[in-house]
């Protein structure tokens, strides 16, 4: 008997154009039935590009000495929150590298000021921190926490994080801790990592489901030339189907299948997805996505938040307008309010 994992694996390997059209349609239909039709906007504030880690794919890794570092001040961050509110976004995402020099209290103060000033939900994405920090931030009013596991393949995970002794298991444990503290939890993966197999990618999607994630971020692997992984010569076009390609179509398949398996989750069109696809926002919205995260980081900082090379990341103006155009072109409207995860099945 075919298992769910086999079914996911077959879709991942599907190349027939007509079959894929039916996959996009199924994902869009399920999204329509299971979530609000509005597209929720989360204003992304990348407040620090300092990081103590050395993930082998990421341009923010501490060994990348070419990258100028920055850390925004609290008034700067509040100015971004003001823009989010003025544009009608329902939430902000405070994101940084693992910057151990910002104290839990300082982040707690940002959360408190935002929550006291604006009716915004606050999502944190600042990596692995002590549980006491997560507890403090929840007490200050943080609503959601994003912590990607990147890949469910433990061997590959260790290649991505060579100095991380605790491994993938710890990251999954932390997601459970965050859930128990009352956060909405989000995670995600990278599609087409060197050495990633189709079955491990299918396992990623099963883990999204088993964790009952509220938010799931999916993006293709985009090599960064100043990283160890980005300098490797990978044949993404291997014909034996063992290496997952890092193509736009592959990321689109993962997005669509994830919507089928996790119907109620909030699934954004990630910046990486939008970078890899021309008309990425429209394509994502037609393939099961229901969230977009426009960057509010001031341009001088934004170009230094260099996780991977992205022309979209360096665009200084018009991002909000382009996103609005994409939303209306997809026949949808921008959402209002915090845009919490749907729980339609829970009230039946
Ligand atoms: S992926 Fe995150 S933790 Fe790893 S180097 Fe980049 S910013 Fe730091």
Question: What's the SSE blueprint?
Answer:
Blueprint (H helix, E strand, L loop, with lengths): L3 H10 L3 H18 L5 E9 L25 H13 L4 E6 L7 H14 L3 E5 L5 H10 L3 E3 L7 H7 L6 H14 L3 E8 L6 H13 L4 E6 L27 H14 L6 E2 L1 H6 L3 H6 L5 E2 L6 H4 L8 H4 L4 H11 L19
Parallel strand pairs: 1-2, 1-8, 2-3, 3-4, 4-5, 5-6, 7-8
Helix pairs in contact: 1-8, 2-9, 4-5, 8-9
Bound molecules: iron/sulfur cluster (SF4).
Characterize the structure shown:
By secondary structure, the protein is α/β, with parallel strands linked by helices. It has one domain: TIM Barrel, CATH 3.20.20.70. It is built from 14 helices and eight strands. The protein has an eight-stranded parallel beta sheet with strand order 6-5-4-3-2-1-8-7. Helix 2 crosses helix 9 and helix 8 runs parallel beside helix 9. The longest helix has 18 residues. It is globular and about 55 Å long. The two termini are 31 Å apart. The mean pLDDT is 93. It binds iron/sulfur cluster. Iron/sulfur cluster binds next to loops. The site of iron/sulfur cluster has 10 residues, from loops.
